[in-house]
Amino acid sequence: MERVPVPTRLYLQDGQAMLQTVRLPASVYEAPFLSDGLRQGLSEGDAARSAVSCPVKDLPEEGALPAGLIFHVSRCGSTLVTQMLGTLPGVRGVSEPEALSLYLLHCAQGACAFDAEAFRRLIKAFGRGAGPGGRYVIKFSSWNVLFLDRILDALPGVPWVFLTRDATEVMASNFRNPSAPLRWYRSREPWFKTCFPDWPGEEPDAPEAFFAGCLARYARKAREHEGPRCLWVDYARLPGMVHSHLLAHFGLQVDAAQRARMEEKGRYRAKGNTRQPFVPDGEAKRAEATEAIREAVKRWLTPPAGPAPESDRADSG
């Protein structure tokens, strides 16, 4: 089985960011989240013996930048999009690599200095061994969009998408299974103040208000950088918009057989039991939303955080 150098750990040493890589099967990138693939890959055999570490600033300069970047509000089809693109020959889907999140957090805390060139080299590390053409796309964690200024400045010319969904549905999903910002809010971990330094505001103990405000921040940050490099993707238009808009936006070409493989992937759940057919759950999520969630959406997300501009929308048929 082909093994490639995979970033497995980012840590600080003497005030500088260090990256550990381990030679693992390239299939670790096929998991819904890279962290899942790493757990599996690192648990097998003597993989850890191939571990090497290097300062991020000294990582190799050569290598291609990503074909595209994926940002999102969470629970909006971003994992599905990444996995659909990952079915294409020579295209690797990298889903929420923890090393990128930690680098952004450590820099935001002042534990190390943000360096655009070092960040580019860190990004390129996820494309090593991607096969002929070396094409890859990176899906960031939802809250990474708060650092969009730095990310885009470091990756000039790289196209990106921002996935949105009905805010009430996103809220209901997150209150059933919290994403990182909501967990941080409840535990008041140090990362919380790093990403949300001006909270608490007038409602320090209102998780619904906090998370609705969080979604509003994501959308505002994405709107600040609208332009030719950006495409808004509405969950309600998936998976069709992957074919009609996103492929061209990322400069990816497919033939009939490759398109069929992507469509087959789009018929199934992207998480959990990935052989279970996907069933739209928007109506169910809206029904389970509490009154507090509905009120928070009305207050913090008017107008809504989405959908995409009409010129960027496409039917999913």
Automatic annotation (TrEMBL):
InterPro entries assigned: P-loop_NTPase
SUPFAM superfamilies: P-loop containing nucleoside triphosphate hydrolases
Comp. bias regions, Basic and acidic residues: 282-298
Gene3D superfamilies per UniProt: P-loop containing nucleotide triphosphate hydrolases (3.40.50.300)
Ranges for region Disordered: 265-317
Protein name per the record: Sulfotransferase family protein
Source organism of this protein record: Corallococcus exercitus
